[in-house]
Each structure stands twice: as C-alpha cells, then as structure tokens.
Amino acid sequence: MTLLRLEGVSVRFGERAVVDEVDLEVAEHEIVCVLGPSGSGKSTLLRVVAGLQPVSAGRVLLGGADQAGVPVHRRGVGLMFQDHQLFPHRDVGGNVAFGLRMRGGGRGSYGAQVAELLELVGLPGAQGRAVASLSGGEQQRVALARALAPSPRLLMLDEPLGQLDRGLRERLVVELRGLFSRLGTTVLAVTHDQGEAFALAGRVVVMRDGRIAQAGTPLEVWQRPASEFVARFLGFENVVPATVSGGAAVTAWGKVPVPAGSPEGERSLLIRPAGVVLAAAGLGCEVLSRTFRGTHVALLLRPEAGPPLEAECTLAGAPAVGDRVAVTFAPSEVVVLPPA
Ligand SMILES: Nc1ncnc2c1ncn2[C@@H]1O[C@H](COP(=O)(O)OP(=O)(O)OP(=O)(O)O)[C@@H](O)[C@H]1O
C-alpha cells in the first residue's frame, strides 16, 4: 500500500523552482533514498513531507490524506538530521525518552521502552551516559533511537551518516537496513553519497535541479543509468558522443560493440570500467595509473585516440604504470544513453 504520495510538488524561492513538479510514491515498508548533488533540492523535498516547508504547487498525501494545513507534529513522521541535534544537557536515556514523550504527551520516564530502544540500536545500558562522552557513531545511534521512539509511520533521514568516517558509515548502513527491515519501518532518506544510497535503499531516486532524473532499484540505476548526468553522478567517467548503428557505436575510441536492441543514431555511450578489457590486440593505450581496490585493480589509461579510459583488471593481470597495453570492449558493460 502507498504510504506517501507526492503529486506535482513544486517549491519556488522567487523565480527559482528548487523542487519542480515532483511525483513520488513510497510504499509501506519501503526504503527509498533520494540521491543527488548539492543543491538539487533533496532536503527541501524532505522538509515538504515533514511539513516544515510549504509547497508552491502540488499535494502531499500520507496514508491517502492530504497534508495541506497539517502541522509537523500531527503528521506522524520522524526526522533525523545530519547533525543529530541531541540535547547536550540530557543523558542518553533522557534524549530517547524525549522521543517517547513526543508520542505519549506524558511526563513518564519510559524506562523499559528506553532500554528496549537502546538495545535495538546497539547501545544496551547506555541510559546514564552523557551525550558529550559519546563517539560520533554512538551519537548517531542515540539520535536514531530517539527518532524511532514514537514509532513514526514514516522515518525521514537527512544525510544520516554524513559526518561519520567511511568505515563506520559502511557498517552502520548495513545495520540500519537490517533494523528497518526487522521493524518494517518505511524510510525516506536523503544523501549525496551514492554508496550509502545503494547500500540502504530498496529504491533510489536521483535528483537534478529539482527534478527526478531517474528512479529505480539500485541495480537498475547502476546497470542502466538513464542519462549522462546519472552515469557521471554514479562516478562513471567513460562517456563519449557516439553514432550507433548495426550493433556498434562509432566513438573517439573507435568502434565499440553495443548490446542487442540498443537505440540507434546520435547518442552518448557509457562503457563501465569492467567492460574495458585488456587484450592481445585492440585500442593501444598507455597505463597512467593503477589503484588497488581490494577485489580488483582500477586502471587509468591514455588511449592513442579519444579521452582517458577507466578500466578494471585482476591483481594478477595488472600492468605497471607506463606499460603499453591494448584493450577491447565488452558489450555487456556498454550502455547507449540519450545524446548529451
Ligand atoms: N529558504 C530558502 N530560500 C531560498 N533558497 C533556498 C531556501 N532553501 C533552500 N534554498 C535553495 O534551494 C536549493 C536546494 O536546496 P536543498 O537544501 O534542498 O538542496 P540539497 O539537494 O539538499 O543540497 P545539499 O546536499 O547541499 O543539502 C539550494 O540552491 C538552496 O540554496
């Protein structure tokens, strides 16, 4: 069932549409992650859903009910922001109990529920600790416990792991995903970090200049970016203009085979690094750099024609910087995009 529905939502500041006619649905128990560069309108979209930002046009529906005129505290949504906004003068238990009081309206201490929530986020027994004594990751968990406390029907996260270091982020994101799926929480999250979005979300929504550039499962978006913008945002650099016909594309790198059924004509072409394959003969290249990535080696190549190419190879087969190599292209890793 659809929990959240945005219909033609726009937010204008003066002449500028920061959110531009956005349609979006989030089903119950779904985790949707809005992804996009800085300034693309992600936070504004969250603020609209929370009721913190009025719309210039369009409707926000929660559980089928139009939220026009419904104040923040009556929407039943939970919010967790990047800077966690914990109360520094309250201990951990006090912060989590605040979340519970938001729901209950009472002044109780909610000891049992606080203990249960802290258990849930992996901080059992931390009730009495001072907020200032917690690490960044621990503060994040407390903020999450507080946001989950009133059992919001929709939990919204704005750059939830933004300030944490990469290792901690990667661990927490996996934990969060497990936790949300156990609790059946519906989540709308915003991040500019594609790794985080792909690890957390069941569906990602890529935004550009206030509009949705692409929406789909992480796999769909990764395998079939809808445009050069999305491809580059995902970190793919091998994108060139191409003329496609008869199963091949003519590019600055020469002729590149494309998947069967690809659109023809003047296009852009993406070759994922895994599709640039070292071979005995092919496009001649010089190796500019090689970077060990754990499961493979990333190569930056200077071809004899065309812009630099990113490639991937196994550690055992990796050439050295300065080596001359030849590459061919694997059509399974090639995507024909609309023209730039
Ligand atoms: N109250 C406001 N008045 C005028 N402009 C605003 C206001 N709030 C946001 N903006 C502008 O709207 C644009 C989108 O902002 P928003 O914070 O939604 O983007 P974002 O995608 O979340 O970016 P970031 O990742 O940097 O947080 C920005 O250019 C911002 O400067």
UniProtKB/TrEMBL annotation:
Keyword list, A-Z: ATP-binding, Nucleotide-binding, Transport
Gene3D superfamilies xref list: P-loop containing nucleotide triphosphate hydrolases
UniProt cross-references to PANTHER family, sorted A to Z: SPERMIDINE/PUTRESCINE IMPORT ATP-BINDING PROTEIN POTA (PTHR42781), SPERMIDINE_PUTRESCINE IMPORT ATP-BINDING PROTEIN POTA (PTHR42781:SF4)
SUPFAM superfamilies, per the entry: MOP-like, P-loop containing nucleoside triphosphate hydrolases
Signal peptide: none
Species: Streptomyces goshikiensis
Family matches, as InterPro entries: AAA+_ATPase (IPR003593), ABC_SmlMolc_Importer (IPR050093), ABC_transporter-like_ATP-bd (IPR003439), ABC_transporter-like_CS (IPR017871), Mo/tungstate-bd_C_term_dom (IPR008995), P-loop_NTPase (IPR027417), Transp-assoc_OB_typ2 (IPR013611)
A single GO molecular function term of this UniProt record: ATP binding
One Pfam short name: ABC_tran
Domain ABC transporter, chain residue ranges per copy: 4-234
Protein name: ABC transporter ATP-binding protein
